[in-house]
Amino acid sequence: MGPGPTIRVVQDGDPGLPLIDADLVTRSLCEVSLRLHDTATREQRDFVPLRAGTVSMYVCGATVQGVPHIGHVRSSLNYDVLRRWLTHAGNDVLLVRNVTDIDDKILRKAADAGRPWWEWAATHERAFSAAYDALGCLPASVEPRATGHITQMVELMERLIERGHAYAAGGDVYFSVRSFPEYGALSGQKVDDVAQGEGDCGDKRDPLDFTLWKGAKPGEPSWPTPWGAGRPGWHLECSAMATAYLGAEFDIHGGGLDLVFPHHENEQAQSHAAGDGFARYWLHNAWVTMGGEKMSKSLGNTLSIPAMLQRVRGVELRYYLVGPHYRSAIEYSDAALAESVSAYRRIESFVGRVAERIGTPDVAAEVPAEFAAALDDDLGTPGALAVVHNTVREGNSALDAGDRDAARAAAESVRAMTGVLGLDPLDEKWAAGGSDTAAIAALGALVDDLLVKRQEARASRDFAAADEVRDRLTSAGIAVEDGPDGPTWSLKDVQ
Question: SS3 sequence, the chain?
């Protein structure tokens, strides 16, 4: 097992789990390596999960109203890397990613298209699933749909009403913001400055209050509750589903920066008001922007996943989206995408050369300490990729020098590191069916054959023929270096 996040348990009250005293907890915190930026505390914190060997994560998934774009999938890819890093350390990661399959936008778009709302939602849920898969995102442990968890939502509302934090009015159910002094703790919002953005206030007692349950309207789907038929509010569903699968308290809640307020603030408020500990760490990824503005359908500046996959491969798009730090915005440009494609192909070319010349490299048992340190520092993927590319350069130099052992070791290390990032060129996800890795292997066989002919020409002192072979390779973008152990070759953009 390679270097990875060192985590320790803090758990009491469950006889089925190890109990740790306060002194041991203090000592273990000194050994923690993974630190994550917690939105709630506005600082990096040592990551210490509730249960030894298990990490529980809830990630806000898609509102399945349309075709996914790169802004949508960035969030899932960021948390996929975190999941892989935690798994690399030997943890069982339970990841819940919800599907919002009932929503005002879904109903409106389905009606505009003349389609049933449930068909519209299901169609675009499949589109999101296909996008996740195309970019190598591991399947979630479970993907609960909002419409499948009405019972849990009703139970949560009952608890809130009993505690005096919610009320029914005019067929709706509202959360009473002023009843909960902690409101605003996550986002830093001052209560008197809050605007929920819900439009019509209906029968709210206070405009600050937000809707937990929307009373039924003619022509809309609805479900029965003690307060009348209706459908769930956006915030309620995530609290109900997260706790249904992960328990009243869990480790990590992730989502996009745009969800901090009101969605996550309201999730935390209603969950804490109901008596649940809820998320212990809040993580938020930044946006993909165009012209400095968040990518969204409303701005008309979207780049759909199907369209992007017509231009680049899934693994190349994944590299582009996971390369920047998850808390940094990505300003989309064709040039930046092209640079990412070239960078990934340098990695892929090196691994392919080793596979062709020496044999398929294994995956190293450990990752370099510098790589681990980068990811342990709030999932620092830019630093981690810098280590990958340094190792690629060293491996290419070793290969060109005829040092097979060093080249193989470098390739094995590269596979281990890129595996954590979901970018391993020889992973069956990327290596099957016409990938560049396979192409490099085929190219290698052709180039090596030409180099044999060149050596034969030089041995017979036919230097014109030898130079002709070299010129052909050069014009094809292949650099040839003559060394004491014979000629070696590389693609010109490899180093």
Answer: CCCCCCCCCCCCCCCCCCCCCHHHHHHHHCCCCCEEEECCCCEEEECCCCECCEEEEEECCCECCCCCEHHHHHHHHHHHHHHHHHHHCCCEEEEEECEECCCHHHHHHHHHHCCCHHHHHHHHHHHHHHHHHHCCCCCCCECCEHHHCHHHHHHHHHHHHHCCCEEEECCEEEECHHHCCCCCCCCCCCHHHCCCCCCCCCCCCCCCCEEEEEECCCCCCCECCCCCCEEECHHHHHHHHHHHHHCCEEEEEEEEHHHHHHHHHHHHHHHHHCCCCEEEEEEEECCEEECCEECCHHHCCCCEHHHHCCCCCHHHHHHHHHCCCCCCCEECCHHHHHHHHHHHHHHHHHHHHHHHHCCCCCCCCCCCHHHHHHHHECCCHHHHHHHHHHHHHHHHHHHHCCCHHHHHHHHHHHHHHHHHCCCCCCCHHHHCCCCHHHHHHHHHHHHHHHHHHHHHHHHCCCHHHHHHHHHHHHHCCEEEEEECCEEEEEECCCC
Strands 43-46 and 35-38 come out as antiparallel
**Tokens representing residue 326 in the block:** 């998850």
Q: Are 297 and 187 in contact (CB under 8 A)?
A: no
Domains in the chain, CATH or no CATH each = 22-307 (3.40.50.620), 333-491 (no CATH)
Q: 203-256: per-residue pLDDT in tens? A: 899 999 999 999 999 999 999 999 999 999 889 999 999 999 999 999 999 999
pLDDT of residue 18: 38
Are 90 and 4 in contact by the 8 Å Cβ rule? The answer is yes
Contact 231, 223 (CB under 8 A): yes
| pLDDT (mean) for 309-313 | 93
Mean pLDDT to the nearest integer, 370-397? 98
- The contacts of residue 123 (CB under 8 Å, 6+ apart) are none
Residue 256 pairs with which residues in a beta bridge? 285
> How many CB atoms lie under 10 A from the CB of residue 162?
10
Residues linked to residue 38 through DSSP beta bridges, in sequence order: 43
Q: Is this structure's pTM higher than 0.85?
A: no
pLDDT for the residue numbered 192? 85
Cβ-based neighbours of 374, under 8 Å, separated by 6 or more: 380, 381, 382, 383, 384, 386, 387
What Rg do the C-alpha atoms of the chain give, in angstroms? 27
Residue entry with tokens 């270096």: 481
Q: Angle at the Cα of 125 (from 143 to 333), degrees rounded to 5? A: 105
Distance CA 81, CA 131 (A): 16
